[in-house]
TrEMBL record:
GO terms for biological process: carbohydrate metabolic process; tricarboxylic acid cycle. PANTHER family: CITRATE SYNTHASE, CITRATE SYNTHASE 2-RELATED. The active site is at H265, E318. Pathway: Carbohydrate metabolism; tricarboxylic acid cycle. InterPro entries: Citrate_synth-like_lrg_a-sub, Citrate_synth-like_sm_a-sub, Citrate_synthase, Citrate_synthase_AS, Citrate_synthase_bac-typ, Citrate_synthase_sf. It holds the Pfam family Citrate_synt. PROSITE patterns: CITRATE_SYNTHASE (PS00480). This is Citrate synthase. Belongs to the citrate synthase family. Keywords: Transferase. It catalyses: oxaloacetate + acetyl-CoA + H2O = citrate + CoA + H(+).
Amino acid sequence: MSPDVPRGLAGVVVTDTELGDVRGREGFYHYRQYSAVELARTRTFEDVWHLMHHGTLPDAAARAEFTARTAAVRAAPPEVLAALPAVARATAAAGPLAGLRTALSLAGAVAGFAPLYDLTPERRADDALAACALVPTLVTALHRLGQGLEPVAPRADLPHAANYLYMLTGEEPDPARARAIEQYLMSTIDHGFNSSTFTARVIASTGADLAACLTGAIGALSGPLHGGAPSRALDTLEAIGTPDRIDAWLRERVLAGERLMGFGHRVYRTEDPRSRLLKEVARGFGGPLVDFAVAVEERAEAILAELKPGRELHINVEFFAGVVMELCGLPRTMFTPTFAVARVVGWSANILEQAADSKIIRPAARYVGPPPPVPVPAA
Ligand code: ACO
């Protein structure tokens, strides 16, 4: 008899990791031994990327070397670039995340990504770095093609986050926006054994290639219960419209059994620390959207506590992530792809860690259908 586990594998520990963890009751998460929020406040995206992939925060020389290495592999290979217009057309309705999934799969084939267990750890790490550097190029090119615009080639002289905004708009971003997006990206690189990370590790445990692991992770991220909510949280703000409607709107939705987007979390039983950071970032910009978002957050927390007592529902990362991305001029269709730009670094760190273990992840399910064997009816 196999041991039973809770629905949704809630709280089940399935592996050891050195990459980080989430402490839901404390409202704390960390990348390796450092507070992720502190890293996002004080470091660069490249620093945290180096930490996740190589285990240490870089000193000045290592930072310069790593930054140059990542910038050198940003451009899409010609075969991939040539296919992107067709990918953008075919995924126009599904959006840039579906386009990314398709383009990354192609890029993996073009790069000749081999099964993980056939590669040396050094080669796996090089492939992972290249994939992380390429993702912003692919999502921005797909977005622009979808708008009838030409893709903008990456610039090696800009940091990762600033280059991302540059490729999106064709203009060098102002430093405040570049820093805000960099902080968002750093804060969402990794977050315990979330669904997309788990998916990536399950695929990695089979020894499949890096592109297979990453495209599976993107598929998991695309669901609204995981990464697909930040634009919906903003849609909620728009649907409410004015401060006098906040209470009635929220109550009606919760009483109708609907979920408020940007609230609730599988692990956090208190405020999501990423949300606290992004609220600070949003407040740095100020303005009516930020004031309104803060007012909705306060009322939603109170109404959820009253109408869903004991569920401990609080704001999650997606609520203020949407506000920050809106303030930085990102189109809403790019919110979840921007999440992928960050999370690909965490997924690939997890894939590298998983690939060092050769045990396939293969759980079991309890069969609850009609007792077998039932004779097969004659055809
Ligand atoms: N609004 C209203 N009620 C909610 C919400 C919400 N956002 N979230 C959970 N609940 C309620 C459920 O209806 C349920 O109520 P019940 O006990 O009366 O049936 C109870 O709280 C527990 O809900 P579960 O679905 O069991 O919680 P779970 O931990 O499985 O779900 C999740 C977590 C998926 C994030 C959920 O809170 C949700 O759907 N939130 C809205 C979508 C969202 O913001 N997603 C982004 C998550 S952050 C991220 O992935 C990066």
